[in-house]
Amino acid sequence: MNTSIPPDAPIGLAVALGVGMLIGIERERRKGEGTESGAAGLRTFTVAALCGALAQLLPVPGLVPVGAAFIGLAGILAYWKSGEDDPGLTTELALFTTYLIGVQSAIAPTLGAACGAGLALLLAMRRRLHRFATQLLSEQELHDGLLLAALALIVLPLIPAGPLPWLGGIDPRPLAAMVVLILAIQAGGHMAARWLGARAGMLGSGFVSGFISSTATVASFGGRAKAQPGQAGVLAGGAALSGVATWAQALVLGAALSPAAALALLPAALAAAAGTAVAGLLPLLSRRARGSDAIEAPASTRSALRPREALAVAALLAVVALVVSYAQDRFGEAGLLISVAIAALADAHSPIASMASLHAAGTMATERFVHGALVAVSVNTLTRCAVATIAGGPRYALRVGGALLLGLGLGWAVALLF
């Protein structure tokens, strides 16, 4: 509670008024009409928000808790009055929260506006959220989500932060965060294939799986293309989209470990991703009439999380960081590019993440990072082309390899020009 009215009080009051009206409009549409209508609507929520802002701004000791108690009592009376007609507490809790958002708007208008918009969105999405929780989300997917939340909110904060010399100067917390991210991507790909159907789900799954391993995705889809020749086109499109994910993850890794490095790589990565996506999806536009019954969506009872793969990627990141750091110190740029190329034979993500960590530590120049990232993707693209030929045959390899090489060429061109 302030002892004097701040100069930006009008802004806080305006935000509180707008937030109250926004939430009140949504509740007004829900409360119904006539004698059976709800107790709180547009005017009530607007007044509650303004009350919160005024209680914070006026130089009256204890006015904020008194107002909170009054709003809470009003909510209890409204709930008691509704009886069995409305067993939920959403409106009453929303009214009290709106009062608190009004208080917050007087302290920090921007944060108050964000909280108000978020609450209004949450209330408006009631039916969609209910359908998501009861119909779309399976029991196993809920279990996977709770496990991911526990890892992100409990385990991850316990990981020590700060660069470790024995880890090549890498901060272990981003490595742990990468494990959680990979597990989240696995869950997302699983649900995309199950919810979106065979065709869209396969394309989405190919893109999401590319964040884990584009090479493995190309190999897996290639084997299915041999077994299901009628679906070779959509499978090749999904495999090509895994190449788009490679470029996207290069930016994600760079942004997480060294934002300046990601910004330098952004033009080349965007050009390469766009070229790969267009080349991979364009042939499918003339094949929409083909059926997709042969592709089965994953079962909702099977867990999508594969912790071994995520931990293996994190371990590989650490090993590659040591190799890249040693090669750069011992042999300079030539040794750096050679070590990056060797590591990228299996996976392009690891050397890119390692170089981003070195860039963040100040031991690698920005130009070296960009060139090293392009070398890593280039070598890995050759690997994926070879895998596509072996796993899916020449026609599959031509579609996938053509998209990957086109995107790679655009990436190099943009990097050399800009």
From TrEMBL:
Q: What is this protein called?
A: DUF4010 domain-containing protein
> Where would you find the membrane-spanning parts of this chain?
6-25, 46-79, 99-124, 145-163, 175-193, 234-257, 263-285, 310-328, 334-357, 369-390, 396-417
Q: Which residue ranges does the record assign to the DUF4010 domain?
A: 180-392
Record-annotated MgtC/SapB/SrpB/YhiD N-terminal domain positions: 13-131
Q: Does the record bear Secreted in its keywords?
A: no
**Which keywords describe this protein according to UniProt?**
Membrane, Transmembrane, Transmembrane helix
Recorded hits in InterPro entries, A to Z, give: DUF4010, MgtC_SapB_SrpB_YhiD_N
Q: Which PANTHER family match?
A: DUF4010 DOMAIN-CONTAINING PROTEIN, MEMBRANE PROTEIN-RELATED
